[in-house]
Amino acid sequence: MFRKANSRDAIVLLLLALPALAHFLIFKYIPLAGNVIAFQDYNIFAGVFESKWVGFKHFQFMFQYAEFKTVLKNSLKFGLYSILFGFPAPLLLAMLLNEIRKSWFKRMTQTLVYLPHFLSWVIVGGIFTELLANEGVINRALGLFGMEPVSFLTEPRYFMGMVVGLGIWKEVGWSMIIYLAALSGINPNLYEAAMVDGAGRFKQAWHITLPSIMPAIIVLLLLRIGHVLDANVEQILFFLNPLNREAGEVFDTYVYRVGLMGSQYSYTTAIGLFKAFVGIILVVGLNTLSRKTTGESIY
Question: Residue 100 to residues 107, 109, 185, 201: CA-CA distances in angstroms?
Answer without folding.
Answer: 10, 10, 16, 12
